[in-house]
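Dear support,

We are seeing what looks like truncated structure output for some complexes. This example has two components. We would appreciate it if you could run it in full and send us the complete token output so we can diff it against ours.
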Amino acid sequence: MQYEARFLRQIHKDLLETRLLEEKLCDLYAQGRVPGHVHSGVGQEATYVGVLSTRQPGDYFKLTHRPISMPWMLGTDLDMFFGELLAKKTGNSGGRGGSLHIGELRTGVLGMSGTLGCDTGVAVGAALTIDYEQRPNVSYMFMGDGTSSRGPVYEAMNLAAAWKLPVLFICENNGFAISTPASSTIPVPNALADRAAGYGMPSEVADGTDVLDVYRAAKKMSDYVRAGNGPAVLECKDYRWRGHFEGDQCAYRDAEVTKEWVENHDCVKNLEAMLLKEGVVTEAELAAMRAGFDEQMETAIAHAEAAPAMTAEEIFDGLYA
Amino acid sequence: MSKKITFSKALREGLHEEMVRDENVFIIGEDMAVMGNVFGVTTGFLDEFGPNRVIDTPISEEGFCGMAVGAAMRGLRPVVELMYNDFITVAADPIFNQAAKTRYMTGGQATVPMVLRCPMGAGRRNAGHHSQSLEALFCHFPGLKVIAPSCAEDAKGLIKSAIRDDDPVVSLENKLLYAKKEEIPEEEYLIPLGKAKVKREGKDLTLITWSRQVNFAMEAAENLAAEGIDVEVLDLRSLVPLDWEAIAASVSKTHNVLIVSEEVKRGSYAGELSAQIAEELFDELDAPVERLCGLNIVSPFSPVLEDENFPHPETIAKAVKHVLNK
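Here is the complete output from our reference environment:
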């Protein structure tokens, strides 16, 4: 086997916990326990977990609204995570930013933007800091295939390439921008990877439902960027299992296709089958992990539900101008 | 004859009638065709009008807003949907520099008969990038007309007039109005741009507002009537052009003014109205013009904070009493 058991167990743990968090968010939303909307990333965990498994201390991350659970893997604790989702004082912004805007700077997370792609320059700017301080770090810029159609992405990619800044642009291509298939709006098969050549960047395309394939490609690209060669592009192909938002019935697409992806390209199920076959984990261990993490989540949710919300009198706290 | 339908269905009827009437009218935006719009406004349009007239775009707001300007300059009548008015920040130049200025800067050689539909407003726990009310931005640029209907009847009548207008019109549609069911006329009708409507006559104070706040203002006015305070509610319907005659007539009758909007108060269009009234109608006023708006704050995610961030019937009633020193 290519990877050590310890590495495989860690990447599986991250993958599974991300899955369980995403599923829990759907449940909480269905029960009316979270305000606003939930953009579920169930089924798309491998891209993020595979890429982020290449991270080093001091790296920066620009995440997206799907999966929104990634801050946990990067070091935001569950009390704070659920605190923000439930709009409580214990959240990272005290409930000011909410589910689309979870980010704890201490962990290198630079936040997310509700206006898609507008923060690509922010990721490149963080890379300018890395370059300025001559650190061997990477700024990871995640986006979806939908965002790859935004103009600011290309200004930022051009700048990063012209100035050889350490940015890894990651496109998680799930095939849909809300209802619109990438095939009808993007003229190339690989939304971002095929455009990399225009900026002189190398690119890789990985199977976004296979966490080890993602890791392989991400390692290659992030090593290239980390070594000071300039930016690169990684594109991971997967599929959005659920609606754009919870409650979206997906009437605009073929349910049979969705079913095929869910049944045959489940990144958690497939990895676990391999790990069981190779004897890296046992069924009992897997069951214990699920139960243990569920208990951790429920404890954190109970804490969040018991935590105070900000009061109306505090609305201006944190505003400076 | 009248019928009861939702605000979004009324809009849908208006769009539908204009598309049937004029084959140069087409719809363009994100999720408008196959999905029929995230708010359901264009459900069924793709089947009826086909993909040339109901166009799904990628997430490229600056691109497709610019395309609408070009198509409009050369004879088509695009109706663009921006999903959230907040996204005007990413499509600012095509609207503020191209759409708004082309007719003037070409000496009238080209007009831009496009409509930009912008769902707006807070209350859905969507936080600071999806909850703003940006009237002031849209109204700032000479060359843009701006409508902000408060009810189903006006939504339909105004969108039809907007489509027929030869200049760019921005339609600000409060998201929380979409599901509201109201009576509208059965037969075809238009509501002209630039005409306000007195929703409730009164003699003590002129309450100027638009969009969702009209409902809150009416509720406040009814409650105040029980206390002997007679409020006139003036629904602007169009922010640009402004129905100054209606404002002047009402203020000259009541001599007291409160302006209510969901905007951030600082730099709001409500502030512009206040200044105009102070400049032009000073002699008619018994008290300073006051504004009740959103707070000077980033629209918060937290329900507790978000609800604090726009006027409610109770706060409106309080503000009316403040103007009247009661």
